[in-house]
Design a protein that fits this description.
Elements: H1 14-28, E1 36-37, H2 40-47, H3 51-63, E2 67-70, E3 74-77
Helix pairs in contact: 1-3, 2-3
Protein backbone atom coordinates (compact mmCIF):
# COMPACT_ATOMS: atom_id res chain seq x y z
CA UNK A 1 0.00 0.00 0.00
CA UNK A 2 1.25 3.45 -0.83
CA UNK A 3 1.42 6.28 1.65
CA UNK A 4 -0.71 9.16 0.41
CA UNK A 5 0.63 12.69 0.85
CA UNK A 6 -1.13 15.85 -0.21
CA UNK A 7 0.65 19.15 -0.84
CA UNK A 8 -1.68 22.10 -0.17
CA UNK A 9 0.87 24.52 -1.67
CA UNK A 10 1.17 22.77 -5.04
CA UNK A 11 -1.86 24.43 -6.62
CA UNK A 12 -3.04 20.99 -7.80
CA UNK A 13 -6.49 20.02 -6.49
CA UNK A 14 -6.40 17.32 -3.81
CA UNK A 15 -8.53 14.90 -5.84
CA UNK A 16 -6.02 15.20 -8.72
CA UNK A 17 -3.11 14.55 -6.34
CA UNK A 18 -4.86 11.37 -5.13
CA UNK A 19 -5.42 10.25 -8.73
CA UNK A 20 -1.81 10.93 -9.65
CA UNK A 21 -0.50 9.02 -6.64
CA UNK A 22 -2.67 5.97 -7.35
CA UNK A 23 -1.72 6.00 -11.04
CA UNK A 24 1.96 6.29 -10.09
CA UNK A 25 1.60 3.44 -7.60
CA UNK A 26 0.05 1.21 -10.26
CA UNK A 27 2.59 2.20 -12.90
CA UNK A 28 5.54 1.60 -10.58
CA UNK A 29 4.20 -1.76 -9.42
CA UNK A 30 3.81 -0.57 -5.84
CA UNK A 31 0.06 -1.19 -6.18
CA UNK A 32 -0.80 -4.58 -7.67
CA UNK A 33 -3.86 -5.71 -9.62
CA UNK A 34 -6.53 -6.80 -7.15
CA UNK A 35 -5.03 -4.90 -4.21
CA UNK A 36 -7.67 -3.29 -2.03
CA UNK A 37 -7.55 0.46 -1.41
CA UNK A 38 -8.80 2.19 1.73
CA UNK A 39 -12.49 3.05 1.84
CA UNK A 40 -13.45 6.56 0.78
CA UNK A 41 -14.20 7.42 4.39
CA UNK A 42 -10.95 5.97 5.75
CA UNK A 43 -8.79 7.76 3.18
CA UNK A 44 -10.66 11.04 3.69
CA UNK A 45 -10.06 10.82 7.44
CA UNK A 46 -6.39 9.88 6.93
CA UNK A 47 -5.80 12.80 4.55
CA UNK A 48 -8.07 15.21 6.43
CA UNK A 49 -10.12 16.02 3.33
CA UNK A 50 -13.81 15.94 2.48
CA UNK A 51 -15.36 12.58 1.53
CA UNK A 52 -16.34 14.05 -1.83
CA UNK A 53 -12.68 14.72 -2.66
CA UNK A 54 -11.72 11.06 -2.34
CA UNK A 55 -14.97 9.92 -3.94
CA UNK A 56 -14.29 12.12 -6.99
CA UNK A 57 -10.78 10.69 -7.36
CA UNK A 58 -12.01 7.09 -7.06
CA UNK A 59 -14.86 7.75 -9.54
CA UNK A 60 -12.51 9.22 -12.12
CA UNK A 61 -10.14 6.26 -11.75
CA UNK A 62 -13.08 3.87 -12.16
CA UNK A 63 -14.03 5.58 -15.42
CA UNK A 64 -10.42 5.07 -16.58
CA UNK A 65 -10.66 1.39 -15.46
CA UNK A 66 -7.74 1.86 -13.07
CA UNK A 67 -10.03 0.98 -10.13
CA UNK A 68 -12.93 -1.42 -9.71
CA UNK A 69 -15.49 -1.02 -6.95
CA UNK A 70 -17.36 -4.09 -5.76
CA UNK A 71 -20.47 -3.16 -3.81
CA UNK A 72 -20.15 -4.22 -0.19
CA UNK A 73 -16.58 -5.45 -0.66
CA UNK A 74 -14.41 -2.45 -1.47
CA UNK A 75 -12.35 -0.69 -4.10
CA UNK A 76 -9.56 -2.57 -5.84
CA UNK A 77 -6.85 -1.94 -8.41
CA UNK A 78 -8.21 -2.98 -11.80
CA UNK A 79 -6.50 -5.01 -14.51
CA UNK A 80 -5.81 -2.05 -16.83
CA UNK A 81 -2.19 -0.96 -17.18
CA UNK A 82 -1.35 2.67 -16.49
CA UNK A 83 0.86 4.63 -18.87
Amino acid sequence: MIEFKLDPKSGIPFYRQIIDQIRYGVGSGELKVGEQLPTVRALAVELKVNLNTVSKAYRELEIQSVLETQQGTGTFIGPVSVQ
